[in-house]
């Protein structure tokens, strides 16, 4: 089963490799990972999408918590979080395909951010399933290049991660 | 007062109460050593190899309970410490390793003797630091020592570039330290403690299964009290030996692959296992699917990641084992249940255990012509001091020591349990002897492992550390040979040490004394003579070459499927 975990970490030298070593050294899988500083000084937030049963997830959670640089681990697998991903998509766009692509972009509320006579570059955001869906529709029209950020996630409701 | 970074480092060590360090100089720690030259509060011991220095710091830490400190230069000095660090990490030993590093401006340039030691040791340290500024030394060291010794202890590496050692700064040592991402939970939850005691009092076949955490957490006293109060049988892992006196009737000895028959049978037939600072290692559980099939499990550990890692747990208690066991004693005292009735009801269980003890006690066939290794171990126990500290290498002699020495006090056995490091015994004994110059320190080795750090004979003689080195010599890498005998049709591939070494001459070459026993009648006199010597000694015993460690649970078999005679 797929799980999305947010990890609040010290914005320190080597933190990313500690987390990565933890996953690789124990045979845990990382499907996507994104990291950036937060609004709190000195802290960064990682969003990790991983796979495993409940027992593996519990181990991942505990092992992450054990790292000295990790302040908090949030597991959004129970639907308590909102997930978004951004993708930049380059598609070939000639003749009839140009109109079809624009329709797809419109349906998914995506944006054209670069255009040439032979191509469009599209910016799409949404939960990862939505990104998968737009890619499926664009694939037969000529996908040339796809860049995905990986998920970022935030808890639902009024509270921040630390209250 | 301004001072250089090297001096600040030494002042930090002094503030942490460090009296002895094990280190090896080199280009990127030469400034540190220059300060050490006139720094009188710290005794420096120069091993002959950085690996040995790290093991010595580890032995010092295990014997004392304090943080061991090792120093090495950058590059090869640092990489030589890796086995020592991994050994300490697997057994949760508090250590701080200070490595020199090339000047900060050169880091990443493939400079002479540069290596990314933080990267190399990341999977085998509890944490690590690179000090980039002289202003950061004091806080970093405060954190390093705090992390090394608190919670589940472990080695912390501090990488210390040469230019930071040379830079001038002020020394202010912080009184306290607060690390927002590191708050080990030491206090066992009262509700869980209550439940644990209730579970024990409603059990019929309880066993305490005790690991290294009880030694590291200095919990021998409450453990013994609780076991005796509730009449609970106690088995320990290799790392747990000494936490509960083996002379006690409740003791089942060691469990696991080479554990006592009664211990493994008790685990298999138990209805309640109380795990204390143990981690259900594969050498202990045997085949997981058939491990303790009838038992509920209470697991007490300071490290939440140990709990439910390998086996299902019915009641987890996260906390310092000493704290939890003490609370359990108090809870048992105020329990409304009748404790006498409870212990009386355990009689059938105790009688089952007594039956297993009698059916297959640990034993061996004595011989009148060749020396049996088990006999040497028994004689060593008989002739050594009560508080003697024993270290071992890894292999057959280690298991014979665990089975036959009978440990009664915590911190008297120093052995590499998790990593299983050959070459550990001699330098670890050196570290323990440095901490306790007046106690008897004995290292029991095989002829394989002893050669892996034999150069430390020089350190022993130079520093007047009177370690007694016992070599059980069968001219084999005995444990691997045993596996080859049992599972590989006696194809002894590369396990025969074909060149016999004259260990008596070797001792002489280092300026130590050597004694040799070749027949059973020599054993007692060699040990007596060896123990009488004021300095370091080698006592070599030519033992039965193909003696096996038994019983044995073959890898992957169930715990109750022991090979008793092969």
Description:
- The complex is a heterodimer of chains A (163) and B (566).
- By secondary structure, chain A is an alpha+beta fold.
- Chain A contains 4 helices and 9 strands, in the order βαββαββαββαββ.
- In chain A, strand 6 (111-116) and strand 7 (119-126) form a beta hairpin.
- In chain A, helix 3 (96-107) packs antiparallel against helix 4.
- Chain A is elongated and about 55 Å long.
- In chain A, 26% of the residues are buried.
- The model of chain A has no long low-confidence stretch (mean pLDDT 94).
- With 566 residues, chain B is α/β, with parallel strands linked by helices.
- Chain B is 37% helix and 16% strand.
- A 6-stranded parallel beta sheet of chain B has the order 3-2-4-5-7-6, with helices on both faces. A 6-stranded parallel beta sheet of chain B has the order 11-10-9-12-13-14, with helices on both faces.
- Chain B is globular, with a radius of gyration of 24 Å.
- Chain B starts with a strand and ends in a 24-residue tail after the last strand.
- The model of chain B has no long low-confidence stretch (mean pLDDT 97).
- Chains A and B meet through helix 1 and helix 2 of A and strand 6 of B.
